Amino acid sequence: MDEALSIIDSYNQLLYTIYDREQLVCLSDNGYTINGKNVLSYSNPAIVRAAKIGLYDYLNEITDKLKKPIFNDMHAEGEIIVATADLKYRLGTMYLYHPYIVILEESYYYFQGEKQFCYEQTRNDARYNREIPIAFESLYKYWQRLSDYLLHFFPDGLLACNGRSFFHTPFDFIKKHHQNLCHSKNFQWLESFSENGYAKFNSRRKFFVHTAGYDNRFFQDYLEAHNEEIAMLAMDEERTQLLDILKENMGLCIEGYFKMMDFINEIEFSKDDVSGAFSYSLIKNNDES
């Protein structure tokens, strides 16, 4: 084994150790099996029902009209799965660098009897900072892919937004045109997340994309803190809290995947033989009275 490959192998072994220690799980782990559920086949019931009544044929007409690629459920699910692997890698890399970042609380000297905080950035510190916006982008990509997957089961919703959808687009369409589906507990979970959890992390992502990257922002905050100790401690705390925030969101990604697929699987698709219009209803559970 050459030296470069040996270094890469050691690096990967470190990441695997971190994944296990922090219990970071993506949808491709354990042979694509999470809590006994097979990720690759989980949405099959809905796919079969949708194809059987010609929903995909109608979807192809819509995507052709919008000049969009034809929907391929395997490709779409693959995008979702890879997005969680991306996030896992980014978060694992942050955990790798975190023990070696600059801690402002510990980085000071005394000048004329006053404590002077000094931020002398190291390479490891910079690596950590620069992974943060990428991790938030990975989160955004994941939820967008999941939302796109759901919207393709509602071709009229895709047409209504002219093929330009955001995470909330399918939920808004369903609430407006298929209120009977809103009784689903899975839908309610997803809608609640879109208004709360999603909005929280996305506000950070928007800042990084449209205003400033984390690395530059952190340095500017350090300058603007004017050596105030409370501000320095707050900056230290925020950088560490970002690990917890991203880890929590990764868990929500896994939970959200099954909530989304459970919602799709509980939808009954129907087609009017005369008008050709599609309708949607919830399949009743066997244990319902």
Please describe what this structure looks like.
With 289 residues, the chain is mainly alpha-helical. It has one domain. The protein is 64% helix and 8% strand. It is built from twelve helices and six strands. Helix 5 (73-97) packs antiparallel against helix 12 (229-265). The chain is elongated. The termini are far apart.
Quick tags:
289 residues; mainly alpha; 12 helices; 8% strand; elongated
Strand order of the largest sheet: 1-2
Q: Please state the structural category.
A: mainly alpha
- Provide the β-strand percentage band: 5-15%
Task: Please mark out the parts with pLDDT under 50 across 5 or more consecutive residues, or reply none.
Answer: none
One letter per element, helices H and strands E, the order comes to HHEEHHHEEHHHHHHHEE
Give the end-to-end Cα distance, rounded to a whole number of Å.
65 Å
Mean pLDDT: 93
Largest sheet: 2 strands, antiparallel
Give the fraction of residues assigned to helices: 55-70%
Count the strands?
6
What's the tally of helices? 12
CA gyration radius, whole angstroms: 23 Å
3D shape: elongated
Query: How many domains comprise the coordinates?
Result: 1
Summarize the structure.
With 289 residues, the protein is mostly helical.
Write the layout of secondary structure elements.
Layout (H helix, E strand, L loop, with lengths): L2 H20 L6 H4 E2 L2 E2 L5 H9 L2 H11 L7 H25 L10 E4 L2 E4 L5 H29 L3 H6 L8 H9 L7 H11 L1 H14 L3 H11 L4 H37 L1 E5 L6 E5 L7
Antiparallel strand pairs: 1-2, 3-4, 5-6
Helix pairs in contact: 1-5, 5-6, 5-12, 6-10, 6-12, 9-12
